[in-house]
Design brief:
Layout: H1 16-36, H2 49-57, H3 60-86, H4 92-107, H5 109-118, H6 122-148, H7 158-184, H8 186-194, H9 196-207, H10 209-219
Amino acid sequence: MTPSYETSEGRPVPGLERIIFFSDAVFAIAITLLAIDVRLPALPPGMTNDGLLRALGDLRPEAFAFVISFVVIAAFWVGHYRTFRVITETNGRLIAINLAFLFCIAAQPFPTSVLARQGDLAVAVVFYAAFGVVTGVMSTLLWLYPVRAGLVTPSVTPEISRHVTYRSLVVPVVFAISIPVALVNPIAAEVCWVLMVPAQVLVSRRLGIQHALESSLRSG
């Protein structure tokens, strides 16, 4: 079901389309910047096949950081998309929270570059994880505020709101857990991040979140 961004009288919700289009552009630019950072360094003339293979192999840290950050940003985009499907009104505070969240998304290439270059160091992993905690908290707040401010469709029940909050908190909780792990073993902390998406899928299925949201949209 495609959201119409219209009031019950058929008029466009003031400013909502601009918020969504601007947000999507920020997500797209952030992902593009991630990809730009994955590139071969200047290679000497007369490069052999073996030399090129070694150079490509040396890109493993950059490729890993790109994949992790792409998945993280994609997960945040899905949450943002689902949130704005049920929003029916906007106000200045919602715009401010959304801008703060987008600030974190736009800045994601920086901690990604730190992780790509120094991912074997605990400080780099902790820095990336701390950034993930902040972004995850902002994403959760972006859901909680419009629900509590009455800016969403009335069919979003307290139970749906609570369950979506649980799912949204998976990302910052996993990042937070990985911080003390990184102090002992940075690689183990990075493995923890891989579990975020399966954990969110598990929470969604156990709580029936997607079905409940689709039902609320149809009834709203």
